[in-house]
Structures
1.
Amino acid sequence: MVCIEEKIKKLERMIFSKDERALLLLKEVGRELLAEPDYAKNGRFLYLQALASYHFGFMEKFYGQVQSAVSHLIRCEEHGLLSRCYNLFAVNAQRYGILDVAYNYYLLAASFAEEEKDAIEQVIVHANLGDLLAEMGEFKKAAACMRRCILMLKKHRDHPSYHEYLMIWTLNLGLYNLSAGEIKKSEQVMKRAEKLMETVPKKVREGTGAWMQMLRIQCALATGDGKRKRALLNEAVETVFLQPQFSDLMNDVYRFCTELIACGEEEGAMRLIQSLEQNQQIYTSAYIRVRFLQLKIGYYKSRRQYRKLKECYETRRVQTKLIETERRRLYAESVKLMDAVVGLAREQELVRQENKKLQAQAEADALTGLPNRFALNRTLEESFRKAKEKKGLFGVGIVDIDSFKEYNDRFGHLAGDECLVAVADALRSFGEQYGIPCFRYGGDEFVLLYGDMEREAILRLEQEIKENMPVSVSHGFEVVRAESGVKVWDALSGADASMYRNKKKRG
């Protein structure tokens, strides 16, 4: 039987390749993930739904699914999936040219990926940020961002998508260098990319052929190799740019066409645009259509082809209305999503504060207000673990009220309670002064955690404790080296034995 993780991996591959069988598999995965109320599993399914809606163009469902996914995932602190949700929302915003929203959500995605310590997700988000910077015309920054991504990626060679990401980001680095006017750097990158092409799996070569072809053509444009650029452009128009996976490259194609026009290759740019228009599978976004229409308008104006120019203006008017409608919706959904994030964060903070109060109540001694034995056990383990990491000293002290049983029997429990409270208050004041945690151990005994103090320092403090107590007390302590073979209870039992020895000495 195929486990759910394998099914999800297969589902994601099918979604990214726009395989419509993914929709059937999505239902099957949903039956398993929604079998019981579970924020993590339910949130994961909602994310997968949103991913499918984005890639298959079901945008009327997309925004609600993202918001529902985020709502579930925040509650169970699934930061890795939250990062993917915000990244997906940012990619969609960038697709519609709403770059400020995209930028903010990429940063949000990066922060959650960093919190989850998900290195691959961090690299993916920063690569998307690099693409956004390129779209904003910041090509040098985009290239620097992509170089960092490649270096980070090389630390994770065992990742299943390693070759694909490395190939795509290397080619993008070459394109950004060219756009920044750094031709030599781009040629060096192209040589590396050509070598990579020989080593990566066949599937990766096929999937990144369009990127490689663009880099080759642009290098030919930049170096003035007219014969080569025309041959490459003919090949690109006829084959490479008609691949379905090329839909993810449309922003790069737009920049490519503008550079063709700038180099006097208007005819080549128009042939490329017309070939893209014929393939509706990759020419879906109204925002992308309007950008290419603007190039066509410039072309028809220069050629004085007024009938076609009029058609372009009319098409642009219709598409612009669609864009504005989608942009208004996206801004509204962005605000709703952020409000949901802030609201859930506040809700979580209230829950954390309430839990903190409950924990404080559970770990506080009802009579004296000092932390109780439950708190002592937890703090002892945590403090000793930290000391062990440094192989440092670990000191524990015990304070016991002298003749407390006789005092309690003679004056009554109320007087005994008042005595305990008075000693606890004195120890609390002492602890606050020197930064020493104090606990009620039980009965008339109290524990002090001296941490990494030397014996001589504790001996000096011991005298001060005795002098400032409202009643006579006995004090003992033990200091151990926190290393292999030594346990925290060695220090506690040693302090207890030391205290009883001191008590016997005093008679």
Note: The domain at 373-505 is CATH 3.30.70.270 (Alpha-Beta Plaits).
2.
Amino acid sequence: MTLQAVAAARDREDPAATLPSEVVNQAPSLGQSRRLRRVAQAAAETWNLELTRLRQLSDGWNTTYRADLVNRRRIAIRVGRPHGRPAPEQRAEIAWLNLLAESDIPVIRPIVHPAGQMPLEVAVSGVPGSRLVAGFEWVEGAPAAAHLDQARARAMGTLCGALHAHSLAHPDPELDAALPRLTTLIDRKESALLDHLADEPAPRRRVFEEFISRSEALLDRFADAPLLRCHADLHPWNVLRTRRGRYTVIDFDDSAMTWPAYDLGIAKFYLHVARTKAEDTPSERKLIWRGFCEGYAQSRPLSEDPRAIDAFVIVRQLVLLDHLLGDPRPHLQAIAPGYLDRAETRLHQWLEQLT
């Protein structure tokens, strides 16, 4: 399955469930698509790559293309959004990927080219400013989300534990200093969520304020805890299973320095979202998480407090909701009201069910 099929698989789930970084297949205008296509083509030319086909796969936080080359090779080209992840952070992301690849941890690999360091800064006519572009080797596989079960969750956990263990075993102060910190909730002075809640009925405002206060208290308790290099977006759409049964982690563009418990809370959030079909029960979702934890323990002892992991699940939901409500793109604003309703329902359920 190609990355386009991964995108389609996400859409078959709750398209809004994994916002913001998993908003995919949202069609830009024809003019915008053509302009961004020229950005990807310019990057390929700089890398001395001869294209036979360039196919747009997604238009979320980044715009991603599959590039078919004359030698029958494929790569993925990622074109960043304006004011997206800055170049130093992207260079740190790529440096970490190269370190992981050297350790034979199955992750997506940046392409090697003679034209200098990635990301490239590309400017073309018709596109305001410049865009940062990165290239990656193609990974052919099906997302773990396509048939998520305890075995696939266990494979995800093994990979998560391997990433954490690698970060502990390979300290790199310069690399760690370049990655962003994922240690905050929302900015109360500029929060789209709080601005939106000001117009909501008082009972809803009180519910979300309670969740926000609890989450802020959690982050305060972790303020002095050591940070670790983490994927920070490890969900079943970002783990691909190849035809040979090998699992590979992709999409490191949210990688950050954070607490392992937060990284695990992010994974648990998505595993629960991916198992919210009507026929699923809380006990079935607990089995999925148990599989993840068993896999994690194969790579590294799971010493994080389960209650802290559960609390970080709620933090993740609030952060995603704040991002969604603050994104001005029309297709996201159109789904925001329904997503707010589902988020409130989930928050109540998780307080009762997460253990």
Note: Residues 25 and 58 are 5 Å apart (CA to CA).
3.
Amino acid sequence: MDRITVAGILIPIVLLAAAFSVRTAHATSPRERAVQALDSLIDRYWNPALSMFNTADPCNDCNRVFHYWWQAHAIDALLDGYVLTGDPKYMDVMEQLYAGVRRRNGGHLFNDYYDDMLWMALALLRAYEITGQDRYLTNAQRLWLDIQGGWNDHYGGGIAWRKTQRDYKNAPANGPAVILTARLYRVTGDPEYLDWALRIYNWLEENLVDPRTRLVWDGINRQGDGAIDKDWLFTYNQGTYIGANVALWEVTGDEQYLERAKRTATASLLYLTRSGGVFQDEGQGDGGLFKGILVRYLVELVRADEDTAQIRNALLRNAESAWASRTPSGTFGPRWQGPPHSGTVDLSSHLSGVMLMTLTAGLQASEVSAAAP
């Protein structure tokens, strides 16, 4: 990512979008809040002419830049909605979005940015696991074949950030690569995927994890000077490292990975939150998605390890605070605390709030189910 109509389809999409109008009733339960957040995503952002989400609300010529990786996370958010509710409307929109992204991207899913493709591959692999449709697995594997070409010997290994900057290695490209290859191993049983997961993980651990704080630095050699960006401490880099550890624990059973994940999660709560333990505002644009990514992998850690009450409680506090800080139109701005954001809300920012609501609701629902006699 760069940080700085077919009538037969159009008509049902328009009808579908109308059915997703934002509810004004007071949502009380976590599930109701999640559904309201998901419905506002469709109602405020869905563009039936493009079969994709607008990149801002309101949209004032907002789609000139194609934010491929935001749409990948929108696929994940719709899958979250389906997993939580079982409502097929979320899968309908997800399939339309997948087709819209391919069309906008020139009929394929390849991209100059390795991290962008990783997010898409992760979303499609989830789609395969949920639907059983082989096309999603096939495309995740094709993306990985292209991504693995980013591995090179600059700075001892690691996957490059983008194809035209092969000597810049960063956490956004390598953390998700571990998650993807570990999950591909889980799904296919092919040991080559596990070999890749361990190789990439070891490079990330040795080069971009602070041994003192256990926070993840952003990257190395961004400006061609060999320097590590130790001051760039973003929530999503912590999230993908946590997710990498959980994914490796799932396929190896090695408890060291859960312990490392918990240490970085605890460090994130200590260093990357503001008053009341609410995660920091990282702006809009690409930064709007950062907190949602951390939330996703913190939830996975809580599901994997019962000894995570502090992390669970922090997630629920963030959900309460973010819900109280929504805009009048029901969208989530970049701040999850304080007065509601005014002005345009980027898709990235709203997606983070949607993920927070949906994933924490799912966490609470699974706890209630587990406690039932």
Note: The chain is about 60% helix and 5% strand.
